[in-house]
Input
Amino acid sequence: MTIIDGKQVAADMRAELKLKISELKDKGKSVPGLVAILVGEDPASKVYVGMKEKACIEVGLYSKLDRLSAETTEAELLQLIEQYNNDEKIHGILVQLPLPKHINEDAIIEAISPSKDVDGFHPINVGKMVIGKDTLLPCTPHGVVELLKRYNIETKGKHVVVVGRSNIVGKPVANMLLQKKAGANAVVTIVHSAAEDLTTITKQADILIAAIGVPEFIKSDMVKDGVVIIDVGVNRVEDSSKKSGYKLVGDVDFANVSEKSSYITPVPGGVGPMTIAMLLQNTYSAYLKLK
Output
């Protein structure tokens, strides 16, 4: 069994990107620019945005962070987005979700220029992804595909079972892996809570991607020997032995499922670090197209 080290792959990607940006600077060229907009005081969002800002600095991206109060109106946020849509120094616009309830998230996502939508959430970019056109891809599922590529895990003709159908992970990762291209070309099944016998399907998986949001949902009797496990879940569960009072676990019962796996991602340290790495890569890709 091989542990898929997302932390190391993400570090490798940041190093590769740092070199590319350094070369731009050496040639006297402008560098890719990313703005993150944080509305309100959501603790998890604050931590995540801070991590993104630190990663931008590490690779040499131009980084800007706008912290807005929870009372910011939808109209004010839309106006700010339009300002960055027209800002030549900014190539990527990220509005941290979730937003306060009085702001329509769909309206905000659709206001971002598709060419600067580094989260890959805009309907135009989602549509391009589905039909296999070159576009900015959503970061977490793109990170999953990148991990499979970097570990030389064959996907062509393999049965990939995706547990979960969210717009952020389940649906996009399924679409990416069924595309007729290198690093994909898989036979993909999406399974979810409506399945009468979920285990019958998960046991067929050559590659199982768990993105259901239920702690340690996937048990060892739900997978076959030699399966590749990609665990996208991040769940807090109580643990009195920890100073924080909780520990992080995935959607997979790691201790038992790992014994049957050929490859498996840990939580934390698997898919998680890849999300920010792909965000930086998307910003660089957007820069190349926009310059």
